[in-house]
Design goal:
The complex is a heterodimer of chains A (266) and B (418). Chain A has 266 residues and is α/β, with parallel strands linked by helices. Chain A has one domain (3-264): L-arginine/glycine Amidinotransferase, Chain A, CATH 3.75.10.10. Chain A has helices spanning 30-47, 86-89, 92-101, 140-148, 186-196, 206-209, 230-238, 249-252; strands at 3-7, 51-55, 71-74, 77-80, 105-106, 121-123, 127-132, 151-156, 169-171, 177-179, 201-203, 217-219, 222-226, 242-246, 263-264. In chain A, strands 2-1-15 form a three-stranded mixed sheet, with helices on one face. A three-stranded mixed sheet of chain A has the order 3-4-5, sandwiched between helices. By secondary structure, chain B is α/β, with parallel strands linked by helices. Chain B has three domains: 4-77, LOR/SDH bifunctional enzyme, conserved domain (Alpha-Beta Plaits, 2-Layer Sandwich); 84-158, conserved putative lor/sdh protein from methanococcus maripaludis s2 fold, CATH 2.40.420.10; 169-413, Rossmann fold. In chain B, 32% of the residues lie in helices and 22% in strands. In chain B, the strands form five sheets. Chain B has a seven-stranded parallel sheet. In chain B, a hairpin with a 6-residue loop joins strand 8 (125-128) and strand 9. In chain B, helix 5 (228-236) packs parallel to helix 9 (306-312) and helix 5 (228-236) runs parallel beside helix 13 (403-413). Classes of the chains: A alpha/beta (266), B alpha/beta (418). At the A-B interface, helix 4, strand 8 and helix 5 of A face helix 1 of B.
């Protein structure tokens, strides 16, 4: 059974601007956000049958709802994030404590070595990809590769709107990849195509990439993604996947969607 | 290129991710150059690889730009430390672990700054200033007790030789010695350099400076073989500005002027003349009686030839004697340490060295010259240019040919009608 760490949007709001999506003037509607989040939880729990581990929201930490950035987990090993922006650095002790409280073998990265968890480190069973340049520091992947015993291919993110790897890159359970190529530099585009195989790389159109079509959660053959991404859904369906759209536009105000709201634990 | 450089480390999964390729591309695109000093590739997929990259840039600013561009891709500047120095224990004695130089451009790190070692030459030590950030090459004999001498290798770096801008025989930058290569284009390239250097020499002279100098190191075979007229013309035409030789070069040149012989052989008749073996002794004796070669030229006793041309054109001459010299002539330095110092003092500004038909003086000069000075070694005996090349003077071109043929061909290339 799949397990996800989630955090209710109790205190979710826009209190600062640390990515191009955030506008202080673009206020979050708390009730709507809560409903959308509950809708996502319902799909994950009921439709997909995932187990949800809920962590306690903390006042004044509006982005804790985005648990993908808690850290990276493999088996019982966890490496908590080191956020680039001080606004989110205050979340670090809470995520770290959660890992410790739940019996994880926690390894801390050295101070100042930025790494934003599963927001930037994603992959396939053999090979992981690490997004860098926008938030995470490429040097973190050398250390993470040692900790997790995995090959980590760093890929450069070149478009500020796609500031985390999970905003433009979504590995599927069958080995395919849903991604938005222009978010990467040409070296990364080539490496991705070489590694995954061009025929297994599914490029989404720009309009849907900007709706965070790639910020999706894939469990088995089901793919939970934000609604309004018809072409992406069709591309998934052709490859035998079942798209599960969920309205999540309140969270797009902060630059996050389905994937950002979850951290896969197993 | 090469005025600024830095070594960076890159590690992780840098090969398959094309990160290494990206960093190297970035260096080139920003006008830099690189040497991959060391690349260790992980033997398995999950093992990291590691590369040490030496980056060179035309200026410090460009180097900074390059470093800023590649640091986000994980390249970090290798940890560096200042050089260490110890006081010399006595006059003429270096600390036991002194750094021994090469003849390549060298820098030492002092107070966090890389500074050039002045007067670099092969097989000497480096002396650093007490307070000021200065560094000079210093030979064992010159060192004084208490001088701060660089020890070990840390904080010392040798810069690779720049590829010359000129596209000529020297731009291959490798020691070439062959008796089977055609000489003509090599001599034409040397003449091309000398023409450009004469321009630079005259320009510097009009500004009261000494630069773009051409050094000729010559042996007496120049006179015996018939190269005297060509060399005299080269000096009179201001193509040669510094002359190193021994007692014999000067003695036989003036013997030729006074007696028409070289070591007793008639230069025009080509055979031994009666009592000819005395001529060089009588020549030396005459100059000794006058007091100096300069005075012999000024008084009209010596009016033609290499010595006369050199004195008239203010060519800086260093005549270094040897153990089998007759006389020697006045002005010949018989203390070899002093001679070495005099040769060293004459080298600043030398941009081309012609080592012609001389073994020991050529090797001595090769040791004193920094590798940045292009060198031509001409000898009928292949062993001499080979010996020079083996000593690492690798911007050296070796020509296996007769001294007179070389000088005549070179002079003709430059406009001599002889």
């Amino acid at each position: 059974m799949s397990r996800f760490l989630v955090c209710a949007p109790e205190y979710f709001s826009i209190q600062y601007e640390i990515n191009p999506w955030m506008r202080l003037s673009n206020r979050v509607q708390p009730d709507r956000a809560r409903l959308q989040w509950q809708g996502l939880m319902a799909v994950l729990a009921d439709k997909i049958g995932a187990r949800l581990d809920r962590m306690e929201p903390v006042p004044d930490l509006p982005d804790m709802v985005f648990t993908a950035n808690a850290g990276s987990v493999l088996g019982r090993k966890a490496v908590p994030s080191r956020f680039r922006h001080p606004e989110r650095r205050r979340e670090e002790p809470f995520f770290e404590q959660w890992f410790r409280d739940h019996g994880y073998d926690v390894t801390q990265l050295e101070e100042g070595l930025y790494f934003e968890g599963a927001g930037d480190l994603l992959g396939f069973p053999g090979t992981w990809f690490g997004g860098y340049r926008q938030r995470s520091d490429i040097r973190a992947y050398t250390t993470l590769s040692e900790i997790f015993g995995r090959e980590i291919i760093p890929v450069e993110l070149v478009d500020r709107r796609f500031y985390h790897l999970d905003t433009c890159f979504c590995p599927l359970s069958g080995g395919e990849l849903v991604y938005y190529p222009p978010a990467f530099d040409l070296y990364a585009q080539q490496v991705i195509a070489d590694r995954i195989g061009q025929d297994r790389c599914v490029a989404v159109p720009e309009a849907e990439a900007l709706r965070f079509a790639c910020n999706a959660v894939c469990v088995g053959k089901q793919v939970v993604l934000p609604e309004g991404c018809a072409e992406t859904m069709a591309l998934l369906a052709v490859r035998g996947y079942e798209p599960c759209p969920v309205p999540l536009d309140e969270f797009m105000k902060a630059g996050g969607s389905a994937k950002c709201l979850t951290l896969a634990l197993d | 290129m090469g005025s600024a450089q830095e070594t960076v480390l890159l590690q992780g999964h840098i090969i398959d991710s094309l990160i290494l390729a990206k960093v190297l591309d970035a260096i080139l695109m920003l006008g830099g150059a690189f040497d991959l000093l060391d690349v260790q590739i992980g033997s398995q997929r999950d093992q990291p690889s590691r590369a040490r990259i030496l980056i060179r840039a035309p200026s410090g600013q460009q180097l900074t730009d390059i470093l800023q561009a590649i640091q986000p891709h994980g390249a970090r500047v290798e940890r560096e430390s200042d050089c260490s120095a110890e006081p010399a224990p006595a006059d003429g004695v270096l600390p036991p672990t002194f750094y021994a130089t090469t003849h390549l451009p060298t820098q030492v790190r002092l107070g966090g700054q890389w500074i050039d070692v002045e007067g670099i030459e092969m097989d000497v030590a480096i002396r650093v200033g007490d307070a000021a950030a200065t560094a000079q090459a210093v030979s064992m004999g010159q060192v004084r007790q208490g001088d701060r001498i660089v020890i070990g290798r840390e904080g010392v770096r040798v810069l690779p030789l720049e590829r010359p801008k000129e596209r000529d025989v020297f731009s291959f930058m490798q020691a070439q010695v062959s008796s089977e290569r055609p000489h003509r284009h090599i001599i034409a390239d040397i003449a091309g350099r000398m023409t450009a250097l004469r321009e630079g020499y005259r320009e510097a002279r009009s500004g009261g400076r000494q630069d773009s100098l051409v050094l000729l190191v010559g042996g007496p075979a120049i006179i015996h073989a018939g190269g005297r007229d060509a060399l005299t013309w080269l000096i009179e035409s201001e193509f040669i500005h510094v002359l190193f030789g021994g007692n014999a070069l000067a003695a036989h040149d003036m013997e030729a002027h006074l007696y028409g012989t070289s070591l007793g052989y008639g230069l025009s008749a080509g055979r031994a003349v009666p009592h000819g073996h005395e001529h060089h002794l009588r020549t030396i004796n005459r100059i000794r009686s006058i007091g100096s070669i300069e005075a012999a030229v000024a008084s009209g006793v010596i009016t033609g030839g290499i010595m006369a041309a050199s004195v008239r054109h203010n060519v800086r001459m260093v005549l270094a004697g040897s153990i089998r010299d007759d006389g020697p002539l006045p002005g010949v330095i018989t203390d070899s340490v002093q001679a070495q110092a005099a040769m060293r003092a004459a080298l600043p500004g030398v941009k081309l060295a012609l080592l012609v038909a001389s073994t020991l003086h050529a090797v001595a000069t090769g040791n004193l010259l920094p590798a940045t000075v292009p060198t031509v070694c001409v000898d009928v005996n292949q062993a001499v240019p080979t010996k020079l090349a083996d000593r690492g003077s690798f911007q050296a071109v070796g020509l296996v040919m007769d001294a007179a043929s070389f000088l005549r061909e070179l002079a003709r290339e430059l406009g001599w009608k002889g």
